Amino acid sequence: MPEPTPRRKVAVVGVALSDCGKVDGPTPYALHAQAARRALADSGLDRSVIDGFASAGLGTLAPVEVAEYLGLRPTWVDSTSVGGSTWEVMAAHAADAIAAGHARAVLLVYGSTARADIKARRRTSNLSFGARGPLQFEVPYGHTLISKYAMAARRHMHEYGTTLEQLAQVAVQARANAAANPDAMYREPLTVDEVLSAEMIADPFTKLHCCIRSDGGCAVLLAAADLVPDTATTPVWVLGSGTAVSHTTMSEWPDFTVSPAAASGRQAFERAGLTPADVDIAQIYDAFTYMTLVTLEDLGFCAKGEGGAFVEKGRLLRDGELPVNTDGGGLSACHPGMRGLFLLVEAVRQLRGEAGEAQVRKRDGTLPEIAVASGTGGWFCSSGTLLLGRG
Question: For every residue of the chain, which 3-state class applies, written as one string?
């Protein structure tokens, strides 16, 4: 019998954003293409090495339709769609495929004109899901996506005494990080009082507890170690990954204060042989302020119930104890839909020292070595966590 293929190391070798923010004109397909071209150029590799492709959220037969638009004919594909964590989950799948020898280089790409579409159609989006299946029993009560997150936040406040001011601190610090990011959609300073006094959307969330709506796309290219010598940038290695799902129906969620990141994070840290104490920067999905707080708890950066105290005193700032969402996150930088891939782009740029004015440095002036990127999908329905490293 033939010898099994030895598992290979996997690196992120190219990352890029498309035009982001307010982007009127280009279609989502065009943003996919723009991001893909830029990521490939960033890697320095020839497009002929790409034999794997992952995409979700666009096209009748995603990723086949998007691959065709980009002129690719991959022999390994993934179209996993589990909400905002899709990209961490697909990156984990891609890394496993490359490690096993099923692909050599996998391109992940995303693009959306969520803001432009709403503007053009002069309508509001429907954030209620599921007219059929188990979710049909919640829909008649107007149980929108944001209300599901709001219920979870209220439960955390009830159980652990988490305050509105602590939740607001997440938005304030995200905005402060965005101030140094020229690509961020909102960069002006924000105060706790401004967050608390903004228009109420779903108690306890005001408008400024919620992510912005933007256009934009990005791409990430993962490759086997044997391609790294041909790349143009510093490789960022995939050290460990984890995936998990929880629920769709709120009545099936055992504990509103625990997200599936508790499982995906534990897997990722164990597989990487690391602990939260080893992490220099964190990129965390933040469609709402509560997501950041509870994910920090579930990844092990603080104990359950201590997230409110942890986010105080500037800990999440670029020069804080644990820089989080260093580009400004979905709360201030961009949120064109399934934002998970943007987390990987920012993590890689920070590890490579390419974040410009927004660059994080450790206390000794050196670049960060280890980053965690953790995406959340649905209403804490799914989670994907990756640990990335420069060394």
Answer: CCCCCCCCCEEEEEEEECCCECCCCCCHHHHHHHHHHHHHHHHCCCHHHCCEEECCCCCCCCCHHHHHHCCCCCCEEECCCECECHHHHHHHHHHHHHHCCCCCEEEEEEEECHHHHHHHHCCCCCCCCCCCHHHHHCHHHCCCHHHHHHHHHHHHHHHHCCCHHHHHHHHHHHHHHHCCCCCCCCCCCCCHHHHHHCCEEECCEEHHHECCCCEEEEEEEEEEHHHHHHCCCCCEEEEEEEEEECCCCHHHCCCCCCCCHHHHHHHHHHHHCCCHHHCCEEEECCCEHHHHHHHHHHHCCCCCCCHHHHCCCCCCCCCCCCCECCCCHHHHCCCCCCCHHHHHHHHHHHHHCCCHHHCCCCCCCCCCCEEEEEEEECCCCEEEEEEEECC
